[in-house]
């Protein structure tokens, strides 16, 4: 044993009277200092851990309340089943796990629908430029199934974002999808050429990867406002399903 203290009072002995350790007063002081530091770290870590747990609990409670609020709104709670512009059957489940921007309109719309779809396409294109963000899927659901068949939608969606999916179906299927999102749609009177305008709700819906409605954007919202809102939703999103 190496003796580090000349003072026998600082020596430790075993039951046979043999020296088993020897610490100087300065060594003992260092041990006490490290002990206090270790205790402080453990206590501090415990406080931080407790704070993190409480904060996590608050976030989870907020998310649960948010989901309940969204479900009470009852937007998009149904499961639509429609044909896309390629003639393939699509349901709501096909888009789970993806962010979705959804717009209801019709291909014979003279101005509002093209303007809103142009804006929607610009938003999605801007989001596509940021590799840190997940892809957002744009959807266009017709409210005019009488004229907007698969072929009409295929021709129409070419004028907008390349990933835009057009959806149509029977009058009953389209009506159900519109009702799920509380979209009002009412065909007006036909003119002498058989043409007519469909009066309908003008909103772009944001749907989370959980398939829940999160937000909507009316005509007054510009591209940058919608873009900022979507980025904020993506940043703060926590799956609850």
UniProtKB/TrEMBL annotation:
<keyword id="KW-1015">Disulfide bond</keyword>
<keyword id="KW-0479">Metal-binding</keyword>
<comment type="function">
    <text>Copper metallochaperone essential for the synthesis and maturation of cytochrome c oxidase subunit II (MT-CO2/COX2) by facilitating the incorporation of copper into the Cu(A) site of MT-CO2/COX2.</text>
</comment>
<feature type="binding site">
    <location>
        <position position="109"/>
    </location>
    <ligand>
        <name>Cu cation</name>
    </ligand>
</feature>
<dbReference type="GO" id="GO:0006878">
    <property type="term" value="P:intracellular copper ion homeostasis"/>
</dbReference>
<comment type="similarity">
    <text>Belongs to the SCO1/2 family.</text>
</comment>
<keyword id="KW-0186">Copper</keyword>
<dbReference type="GO" id="GO:0016531">
    <property type="term" value="F:copper chaperone activity"/>
</dbReference>
<feature type="binding site">
    <location>
        <position position="113"/>
    </location>
    <ligand>
        <name>Cu cation</name>
    </ligand>
</feature>
<keyword id="KW-0472">Membrane</keyword>
<dbReference type="GO" id="GO:0033617">
    <property type="term" value="P:mitochondrial respiratory chain complex IV assembly"/>
</dbReference>
<keyword id="KW-1133">Transmembrane helix</keyword>
<feature type="transmembrane region" description="Helical">
    <location>
        <begin position="33"/>
        <end position="54"/>
    </location>
</feature>
<keyword id="KW-0812">Transmembrane</keyword>
<feature type="binding site">
    <location>
        <position position="200"/>
    </location>
    <ligand>
        <name>Cu cation</name>
    </ligand>
</feature>
<dbReference type="InterPro" id="IPR036249">
    <property type="entry name" value="Thioredoxin-like_sf"/>
</dbReference>
<dbReference type="GO" id="GO:0005743">
    <property type="term" value="C:mitochondrial inner membrane"/>
</dbReference>
<dbReference type="Pfam" id="PF02630">
    <property type="entry name" value="SCO1-SenC"/>
</dbReference>
<keyword id="KW-0999">Mitochondrion inner membrane</keyword>
<dbReference type="InterPro" id="IPR017276">
    <property type="entry name" value="Synth_of_cyt-c-oxidase_Sco1/2"/>
</dbReference>
<protein>
    <submittedName>
        <fullName>Synthesis of cytochrome C oxidase 2</fullName>
    </submittedName>
</protein>
<comment type="subunit">
    <text>Homodimer.</text>
</comment>
<keyword id="KW-0496">Mitochondrion</keyword>
<dbReference type="InterPro" id="IPR003782">
    <property type="entry name" value="SCO1/SenC"/>
</dbReference>
<dbReference type="GO" id="GO:0005507">
    <property type="term" value="F:copper ion binding"/>
</dbReference>
<keyword id="KW-0143">Chaperone</keyword>
<feature type="disulfide bond" description="Redox-active">
    <location>
        <begin position="109"/>
        <end position="113"/>
    </location>
</feature>
